[in-house]
Amino acid sequence: MDSFRIQGGRRLAGTIQVEGSKNSTLPLMAAALCTDGEITLRNVPCLSDISNMARLLRELGVDMDGDCGTIKMRVVDQNQVHARYDIVKTMRASICVLGPMLARRRRAVIAMPGGCSFGSRPIDLHLRGMQALGAKVELNGGDIVVTAPEGLKGTTVFLGGPFGSTVLGTANVMCAAALAKGRTIIECAACEPEVVDLAILLNKMGAKIQGAGGPRLVIDGVESLGSADHTVIPDRIVAGTYAVAAAVTNGDVTLEEFPYDCMLSVIDRFNEIGVHVELVAGAEDPMHATVRVTSERILRPTTITTQPHPGFPTDLQAQFMTLLCLAGGNSIITEKIYPERFGHVAELSRMGAQIYRQGPTCVVSGGVPLRGAPVMASDLRASASLVLAGLMAEGETEVSRIYHLDRGYTRMEEQLNLLGARIERVREGSGVAGETPVPAAAEA
Ligand code: EPU
Question: What is the layout of strands, in order, in the sheet containing 69-75?
Answer without folding.
Answer: 62-65, 69-75, 39-44, 228-231
